[in-house]
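We treat protein structure as text, and this decision shapes the records that our systems exchange. Because each token names a local backbone shape, the row as a whole describes the fold. For reference, a complete record is included directly beneath this paragraph.
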Amino acid sequence: MSLSFWPLIRDPLFRIDGKEVTFRRRGFEVSSPVAQTHLEQVGTSFLLGYHLAIDSRDMTELSETLSACDAEYQGFSYEGAAMGLGLLDALSLGNKRRWQRFLDGPANSHRYVVHVGLGWVVARLPWLRSRPERAIAKLDPLLKWLVLDGYGFHEGYFHWKKWSPETKRRPPFPGYASRAFDQGLGRCLWFVSGGDVHRAVSFITAFDADRHSDLWSGLGLACAYAGKPTELELNFLMERAGKHLLHFRQGITFGAEARELAGIPTEHTEQTCRIACGMSAADAARITYAAIPSQIDVSNEAPAYETWRSQIREILGEEIPSCL
């Protein structure tokens, strides 16, 4: 199946230099050389997927290359490919279903990160970023909010000074969109802090209090999916999360579900789930999957996505002793 790329997309203008995902270029603090190497590899894997998508001429070829990537970083490559295909769609005068075909086909088991990757497109194209709620209007009513999560991560990652708590800047979006953005911004804190839990917590506490729950949820997801926190670091995060502990744990279950669904489990995800949630990554994923709303009322003021998150927190509150 030909991808029929718009010719100009292969121009050097659309390529992203590998230096853009280094700590030095981003100005991120280095907590340890090991953490730096790992988090930079996450960025490199994303760019690999992105460039594969804009260079490949066939969806099968793209799928085979992505599936051969290292399992630990494979999801990030799928996320990058989703950005590449979404960008092709947005700039094409004809075929605009590359991203959807990718989602429905080879990337279906990576569906969460594929939506997140589309958020990078929304963040980079002025006519989409000005009205992001329009950009997601026709997408899956449950998962569309992950696009704005991706938008929030992108902004924190590439424009941290603009969105840091010192600026007091808030997402200029109506309704739930701003909360989804903050969940992505919370994920980004793991990268901005260089994997330093003390620095990550200091960032969260400096934001306005009404944003803390979503930031903690995002940080939890990052810990489970991308991060490699130690037992000591996780205990510190749980202590400091305080009344937002269930939000932190809910984010962790999202990370576990994303890896379990894609079939790319890691030891650090397993350890994070056992320490912070008192259960295996597989059990955390099952809780997440079981909590998916059976019916989605698009007219409801409370998005199904938030209903999903709140049901996960309710289950976690019942199954996990508060003293854990």
Summary: The CA atoms of residues 287 and 312 lie 7 Å apart.
